[in-house]
Write the structure tokens for this entry.
Amino acid sequence: MNGKAFTAISLGGVFAVGLVCTARATPVVAPSPAKLWMEIQHLEKTRAVMPGSHPFQPGSRNVDVFTTDLSNAAARRAISGAGSILAVTRYPAGSLLIKNNYDAHRKLGGITAMLKLPGYDQANRNWVMAQYAPTGKVVAYGRVNSCDACHAMATKFDFVFAPPPQQLLPVAVWKAFFPKQVMNPAYIALLSKHPEAVVK
Ligand code: HEC
């Protein structure tokens, strides 16, 4: 084998190895926060209330005294197809769920959302987590540890909780995540009325 041929073969080998590595390591990229916000705005305008939710249902704290959950068509089909949120074990790619958080005066204070993006975050069921101010300003986005740590309590339902009073979290859990926030008295009342709904 002469020197030139050997060089060509080696380079070819390196190139092929390089391609394999790149293919394996390519991270799945979340849509931009602005793009997801546009999709959220569309669902807000069309009042796409999530099956199982109803407008201004009770929430847990002073920041979400009332909540309304929305869903896009993919998530809606999964929930309706299974019969309820507590019957869904896997959401399809592209599923989008939204929780509008209102204060005691029904003023919108924040929007949280989760988008199913296969390969994005396998340890946390591949949800892109997002939190926005009502203006669309991003508060948290992407792989957000605090969101995932709590939603992991609903791993059986693919990280999605059923709205109160179907599923409730103990006060101690809310306090552990949000020590400064005040609990909503209506939620405390639900906890004592529906002890069987408390997620363990
Ligand atoms: C301490 C627990 C906890 C934390 C932290 C938390 N959530 Fe939730 N989330 C819930 C519960 C419980 C519900 C069900 C509705 C309710 O109780 O208000 C919910 C509802 C939702 C919903 C509606 C779909 C569903 O699962 O019912 C979305 C979307 C959501 N949360 C996104 C987020 C995002 C994004 C973050 C982080 C910025 C976050 N959550 C942080 C507990 C939590």
